[in-house]
C-alpha cells in the first residue's frame, strides 16, 4: 500500500454518523443503523457497542470522554461510559445532537420542531429552560464554543441563536440549511477564533457573522446531488465538507483549498469527523469507512495539534462576557 493511501474498512450496515473519543487510544464513534460502535483508528476493529431501540441518526462524544449521545428515530440516549449505563428519552425523531464544551449539557434537535437542552448526567431538562420552539423540523444544533449559546437550523426557515442562561432568542438569520428528512448530515458548525458560523445552504458553504447574521463569505459546492456535511477541525484551522463522493479541505484563514478532493469509491459521503489532534479525518459513505492520515496529505504541520492558546483565550473572553 502506498503511504498516502487511506485505510478503507467495510462494515455490515450503513454508517449514519461519526464522532471521535478523546482517549489516548483513539477510537471512532460510529452510528451504524441501529447500533453505535466504537472502532479503533488504526484498524477499524470494533470494541464497545450500544444497541439502539431504533435507527441511529446522530452521535456526539463529550470532550472528557465520559459520555456518548445518540439521536434516534424515536428520541435520544445518553451512554455513561464509566458506569456502562444508558438513559433514554422518547421525544420524537432526534436528527442532531451536540454536547457543551464543559461536558455538562446536551442539546437535541427533533422532528417535534424543538431544540431542547438536557443535563448530561440525568437526562432531565435543564432547570428553568423551556424547549426552543420552531416552525419546522430542527435538523442542526450546535453549542457555541463558550457553551453559553446554541445555534439551531430548520429544514425550511432559518438559523437561530439562543442564550442558554436566559432562553432568549438572540438572532434569526433568514437562510435555510440544506438537508433532507431521509439523510442525516451535519449542516452547521460554530467557529471559535471569530464570531462566525459555517452553514450548508442552497448549494453554498456560507460563513455568517454570529453577532448580526451578515454574510462574511461563501463558496459554491458545484454539482451537488447529495446533501453536504461539514466539520471543523478541533483547532479550527481546517474546514472539511463533502461534495457527493468527495471531501474538500479548506484553510479557514486563507480560504484556500488544501490539496485535491479526497475521493471515495463511488458512494456519496454521509458523515465526517476529525480526530482530536486534527491529524486524521474519518468519512463514512454507505457501508464504508475511509481513514485519512492528514499528516501524509498536508505538508504544513501547523495544521495539526491541540487547540491553541489563541483559541483558549478567545473562549475565556467569551465566558467572561457572560
Set out the fold topology.
Elements: E1 7-10, E2 15-21, E3 27-32, E4 35-40, E5 46-51, E6 56-61, E7 67-72, E8 75-80, E9 85-89, E10 94-99, E11 105-110, E12 114-119, E13 132-133, E14 138-143, E15 149-154, E16 159-163, E17 169-173, E18 188-190, E19 196-201, E20 204-209, E21 215-220, E22 230-232, E23 238-243, E24 246-251, E25 262-263, E26 271-274, E27 280-285, E28 288-293, H1 294-297, H2 309-321
Give an account of the 3D structure:
By secondary structure, the protein is mainly beta. The chain has two domains: 22-133, YVTN repeat-like/Quinoprotein amine dehydrogenase (Methylamine Dehydrogenase, Chain H, 7 Propeller); 183-322, YVTN repeat-like/Quinoprotein amine dehydrogenase (Methylamine Dehydrogenase, Chain H). The protein is 5% helix and 46% strand. The protein has two helices and 28 strands. It has helices at 294-297, 309-321; strands at 7-10, 15-21, 27-32, 35-40, 46-51, 56-61, 67-72, 75-80, 85-89, 94-99, 105-110, 114-119, 132-133, 138-143, 149-154, 159-163, 169-173, 188-190, 196-201, 204-209, 215-220, 230-232, 238-243, 246-251, 262-263, 271-274, 280-285, 288-293. It has a four-stranded antiparallel β-sheet. A four-stranded antiparallel β-sheet has the order 2-3-4-5, with no helix packed on it. Strands 6-7-8-9 form a four-stranded antiparallel β-sheet, with no helix packed on it. The radius of gyration is 18 Å and the shape is globular. Mean pLDDT is 86; it is low at 308-322.
Amino acid at each position: 500500500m502506498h503511504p498516502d493511501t487511506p485505510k478503507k474498512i467495510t462494515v455490515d450496515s450503513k454508517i449514519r454518523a461519526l464522532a471521535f473519543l478523546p482517549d489516548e487510544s483513539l477510537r471512532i464513534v460510529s452510528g451504524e443503523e441501529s447500533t453505535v460502535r466504537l472502532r479503533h483508528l488504526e484498524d477499524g476493529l470494533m470494541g464497545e457497542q450500544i444497541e439502539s431501540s431504533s435507527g441511529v441518526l446522530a452521535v456526539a462524544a463529550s470532550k472528557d470522554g465520559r459520555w456518548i449521545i445518540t439521536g434516534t428515530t424515536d428520541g435520544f440516549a445518553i451512554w455513561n461510559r464509566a458506569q456502562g449505563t444508558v438513559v433514554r428519552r422518547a421525544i420524537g425523531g432526534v436528527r442532531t445532537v451536540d454536547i457543551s464544551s464543559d461536558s455538562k449539557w446536551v442539546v437535541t434537535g427533533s422532528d417535534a420542531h424543538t431544540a431542547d437542552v438536557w443535563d448530561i448526567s440525568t437526562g432531565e431538562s435543564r432547570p428553568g429552560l423551556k424547549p426552543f420552539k420552531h416552525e419546522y423540523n430542527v435538523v442542526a444544533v450546535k453549542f457555541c464554543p463558550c457553551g453559553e449559546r446554541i445555534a439551531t437550523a430548520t429544514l425550511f426557515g432559518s438559523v437561530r441563536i439562543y442564550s442558554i442562561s436566559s432562553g432568549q432568542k438572540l438572532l434569526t438569520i433568514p437562510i435555510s440549511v440544506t438537508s433532507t428528512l431521509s439523510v442525516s448530515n451535519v449542516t452547521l458548525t460554530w467557529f471559535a477564533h471569530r464570531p462566525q458560523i459555517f452553514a450548508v445552504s442552497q448549494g453554498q458553504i456560507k460563513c455568517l457573522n454570529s453577532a448580526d447574521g451578515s454574510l462574511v463569505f461563501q463558496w459554491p459546492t458545484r454539482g451537488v446531488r447529495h446533501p453536504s456535511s461539514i466539520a471543523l477541525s478541533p483547532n479550527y484551522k481546517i474546514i472539511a465538507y463533502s461534495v457527493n463522493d468527495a471531501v474538500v479541505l479548506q484553510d479557514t484563514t486563507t480560504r484556500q483549498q488544501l490539496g485535491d478532493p479526497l475521493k471515495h469509491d463511488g458512494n456519496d459521503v454521509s458523515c465526517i469527523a476529525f480526530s482530536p489532534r486534527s491529524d486524521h479525518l474519518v468519512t463514512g459513505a454507505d457501508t464504508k469507512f475511509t481513514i485519512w492520515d492528514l499528516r501524509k496529505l498536508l505538508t504544513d504541520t501547523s495544521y495539526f495539534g491541540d487547540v491553541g492558546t489563541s483559541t483558549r483565550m478567545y473562549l475565556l473572553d467569551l465566558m467572561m462576557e457572560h
